[in-house]
Fold this protein.
Amino acid sequence: MPHFYNANELQFSPDYASAAADMTQIGDSLADCAIGTSVRVLAVDWDQLDPAEGRRLRALGLDAGAVLRLAHRGIFVGRDPIAIEIGRMMIALRRAHAQAVSVEPAPEEAPHRAAEQSNNPPLDRKTGFST
């Protein structure tokens, strides 16, 4: 008889998360990380993304220096979408967007947004464009 899991049974142990962090190498893409892994964003290849999508990701705090945790993968072909935690937020990314994000392991840090001192110009709240 098959066993059905509830959400509480699918929590990952710290041992699993640390083992997954050991598998993540510096410069890997976010799309290649294991579930439960905490990673720090090294760089985002903004040229791979549509400008509007890039603005949305920056507004959500996905930029160099942010610490993320890969929470879930989709069940469809290509394993889309990917759910990540940034601070107290859970956001969904397409796999193509996650491949544009280079990361390194950050097993000791809790997920948090990128620091406000970014190399990117500030965005106007009304238009979403650089000021």
Observations:
- The first strand starts at residue 28 and ends at 29.
- The domain at 28-105 is CATH 2.30.30.90 (SH3 type barrels.).
- The first helix runs from residue 14 to 23.
